[in-house]
Structures are given as C-alpha cells and as structure tokens.
Amino acid sequence: MQGLRDHFLMAMPHLEDENFAGSLTYICDHDDNGTLGLKLNQPMELTLEALFEQLEIDASECQALDTPVLNGGPVHRERGFILHSGSPEHWDSSIRTGENRALTTSMDILHAIAGGRGPEQFLVCLGCVGWEPEQLAREIKDNTWLTVEASDEVLFHTPAPARLETAAGHLGVDLSLLSREAGHG
Fold it and tell me: Which family does the record assign (predicted)?
C-alpha cells in the first residue's frame, strides 16, 4: 500500500462512520509510520474572514474572504492545515504532498493569504485524519475506500460538495452503483 501519497480516498457508499460517510480525503503523507489526510468535501459554517477575525489577522488584502474553511477531520480539530499549490520551501512547517502541492501548518502561510501574498491555490482545513501503520491498507482491502490519483481540478477547481462525485468520475465510477462486496476471495 505504499504510494498513496497525493491520492484521493473515496468513501464507499456503505461506510457509515459519521466522520467519513460520503467523504473525499486527500492523502498528504503515507509511509511506514502511518497515513495523514484531509477531508476535502465538508465545508464548515466558518469562512476565511471569520477565521482571520478569530486569529486577529489583518485580512484587508485577501481576495478569498468568503471561502469556507473545511472540516479536515476529527483529529487535531483546533489546528489549521493548509493544502496548497507550490513548493513547501516557502513556508515553515511544510511538507511536499505532490509534484506541485504542499501541506503547511504554520501561521506564516495564513498571514500571507490574508495579505494577498499566499499561494495561488489553497484549501484551509481545521482538523485532519490519520491511520496507524497498515490500518489504511486493511480498510482498502475490506472495500471501505476507493483510490484515485489526486488532481488540481478536483482539489482547487471543483466546489467542495461536488468533489467526491468528480473524483469518482475520474475512474468512470458512479459510487451509488457500487456494492459492499469486494471482488476478491
């Protein structure tokens, strides 16, 4: 199950866990220590403008104040995770997640976004999801998740509520037609 970094996890229709039912998750990091991801299709009532107000950050130059903050997952709900285009080298506490994508958890990127100097494309999430080593591999084998390579189209150009369906479409799949039974014995 190596190589899931920079992929989407699509919750299979039978997944009933309230944290993951109907979710699309982006895998930021996947190695022998476990897996880190962000749910990308569950906008919160909180906007960037309200977040900047709570953090007392001047956002007078921000062009995206009405952008909803996403519910990134049930772990570290008080912590911000910014998935963005570009290189991780420009920001503190940042890792590369794909060829032209990075995940940053430091305040410097929020100040840059508020000041109109942030990355060209970004998603702001509160919270994340995580799996212990081998846990995600077992869940995929148990037909809980479907995977597909991530795309900028889904990440940055598709409204949050349509991301799951759009990602499934990249595989030519209609999730509502899928069975709970896996095709292995």
Answer: Belongs to the UPF0301 (AlgH) family.
